């Protein structure tokens, strides 16, 4: 499999940055489903993908984060799941194959947006079916690997694993640790690699994406490291979102993201990219820093805070009781 081959050959891989941020810059309106652009504006989606590849990414995610039936139903497009995912992956395949070097196409699958049983109404079987439908479309389009991201519930992670097995696809899966070091549904960083390893169809890599800021993300990687041998993924936001002149702006500079990339690798991650706010300009500096800097020892929390800024919460969520759950979803 191209992802594991590349990883063992190179030791680390650069993943891509933000999808949403790039599409908003191309004119996507807040609330519109980006997946429709796979059919309506394929040139823009190719440009999105090429932006990552030309900045040096070894792996990029398809424009299919919200491409499951539950999410597309909000736009009356639930009958287009398979076709939109196939198109997302086919455009990506085209760009990856033209790169002139090995580039991995990762088929993005985000949360269903629904709460699963026993807390909510979505059953395990329904969630598996939704992810499976999406996975088959991504597979048909030519994705190398499925890429589950921004998950907060263990139940949803399990359902996606089962769907990947049904589709006969390798997969990676990241959660979003955005609630005082835990996911919104209470999963801790140290728990994720352990629960992943016990799955019937374990992921080839696990990790964290989105969340709060670059410093929290590195703290989460430190919490995941050393649990077992599953490769770790770090996809942190480019700083903290700020509302400036009527739009959301992420305050992380390319230089900060370069520091973050080196620290994430020292903390134990081997697949390193960005999430919201991370542009090709950030990716270029991350790539240059990773190439110029040999891997060092894991940073201390003081070093992380000194270089990347303070943490959003005092503890990393691994000790004591879970903080109160809060509502709200964000895009990958
Ligand atoms: Zn994000």
UniProtKB/TrEMBL annotation:
Region (Disordered): 292-332
Superkingdom of source: Bacteria
Record-annotated Hcy-binding domain positions: 1-290
InterPro entries: HCY_dom, HCY_dom_sf, Met_Synthase/Corrinoid
Pfam families recorded: S-methyl_trans
A GO CC term attached to the entry: cytosol
Species for this entry: Hasllibacter halocynthiae
Protein name as annotated: 5-methyltetrahydrofolate--homocysteine methyltransferase
UniProt cofactor(s): Zn(2+)
Family in the record: Belongs to the vitamin-B12 dependent methionine synthase family.
Stretches of the chain forming a coiled coil according to its record: none
GO biological process, one term: methylation
